[in-house]
Amino acid sequence: MIIRDRLFIGGSWVSPSDPALLLDIRSPHDHSVLGRVAQAAENDVDAAVSAARAAFDHGPWPRTSPRERQEIIRRYDALRSARADEIAALISAENGSAGWFTRAGQPFLTRQANADLKAAEEFGWEEVIAPSDPAVPFDTIVRREPIGVVAAVIPWNSPFSAASAKLFPALLAGNTVVLKVSPENSLSMALLADLWQEAGLPEGVLSVLPADRDTSEYLVSHPDIDKIAFTGSTRAGRRIASIAGEQLKRVSLELGGKSAALILEDADLTAVAQGLRFGSLGNNGEACILQTRILAPRSRYDETVAVLKDMVESLAVGDPSAPDTFIGPMIRPDQQQRVIDYIRLGIEEGARLVTGGPQVPEGLGTGNYVTPTLFADVDNRMRIAREEIFGPVLVVIAYDDEEHAIKIANDSEYGLSGGIWSSSPEHALDVARRLRTGTVTLNGSPISFDGPFGGYKASGLGREYGTVGLTGYVEHKTITRMR
What we know:
By secondary structure, the chain is α/β, with parallel strands linked by helices. Helix content is about 40%, strand content about 20%.
């Protein structure tokens, strides 16, 4: 069992304000205790924000060169890469994410770092803009400067990736950060803090605090926080947006999704099934970008449902550390129950249960397991087609023609992700341009860390990754000087 009885505040491991506030981290697989970790209280938030404020206002970090900050990010990623297998195993143990998923995610973290480093290298930190009118007797200098102290709040489902999406651009821009992580990820996020400490961040620049929702709200409401960067549910995002609005803090929100996979009539269904195996059911279905609404043409509807049924039934469910496991347990018992309740709701709504169901998989009753489930004959007005379930549940919706398909895809309060499947790449691109969503993948392509990532509508505000993501962590200052 791993014991972590200190908190990472301002770059050092210190005693928590409430030493009795320890949390047992339990395995989603069998509920055994994996470790015991200190949790932050409001006094710890005060200490972390105070350290970040002092480091920003008086420390060297915001005044270092962009190149020096980039070197710290490179050092961190090298340290993380060297411990990739350890990190993947720890996340699987905490989250229940299958080992194939956590291992495959490690190289993507390096791609994520490289994309942000490239953006920082090419960023116009200070530039002179030529006058639009040659008669203007002054120069215009535009500086991009760090915002200040960032409160970064991330969810439990993919902790290293979510942390990197906030930390890389925030630190590259010269901000200081208080990273609030989910209690469920206390073990892996303690390791993340170790890596950043070893990478050599100056004193006060980073704190990593596992804490509950009340403490999280205390953090984002703190008067010394200049920007909030949040990833999580749309409901929580609305609350954070209201706090930011009241206090006029900068804010970026990456929220929920109910994304559509639009299968065009000429699609290769074998390739579709293989692609949706990962694009709709990766990480046990616990990811906001997954394409869980499958839109199929009526002319090929039965064929599509049959292929998807075979795919879903082929997925091995079990111990996330087992080499053949594709679907592991839900992270907590309440999340398991939430998904089961949605499956029951789908049956009550009149959807056809093709495979799966509300029963726990045989032999897995000691963990938070859900049977991967596929519904057909789903109407887009049903709750299982409109609400984010966050589990291995797919719905197949029939459409009449392409216009009808686009209408269904866009008929959602969300707009985070989506996919198009077609044997014609140009046709797929034309359809993708008409979807009201932040990211669209064609024929199962991965998402890009070089382009902006984020949502339309209730899926968020602002963007992450690349140059656009970096822009979200700077203030723009204009200086004019007479020639």
